[in-house]
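Subgroup meeting minutes
Present: P.N., E.W., G.H.
Scribe: E.W.

1. P.N. recapped why we're keeping a running log of single-chain structure predictions: easier to compare across weeks, and new members can see raw inputs and outputs side by side.
2. G.H. added today's entry (133 aa).
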Amino acid sequence: MKKILGVMILGLFWCNVVFADLILFCKQEVRLIIEKDNSETINMKQDWKFVITETEIIVPGFEVMYKELMRKNYSETSYYASDKMVADESFIAFHTYIKISRTTGEGYISQTIANTTTKQPFICSTKEPKLLF
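Output recorded in log:
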């Protein structure tokens, strides 16, 4: 009887390992546009919501634009996900990645299309922003 009880308790502890989805709410103030010989900063206020799962980062409302952002390079200090890079011999045709610091909440989305890279820095929190009426 003691052995059965011991096996059941160990089984419960073993089955208790679960990864819960993390939801982050982020605020963006500017967008950086970096071209081969030129860079520009423009004001751009935008709110983001990210759902971080065990295997990917999902951007609700922008699933088509930011699809298949698979988590790679697991780190204790940041969340990182990128899509499959499409490249030609002379340049990167398309590539997107997201990186978010687990300690400060600072992060960015970087997207490269042809010779232009846009970087959208933001600051994240687990608290959902209140709507102003």
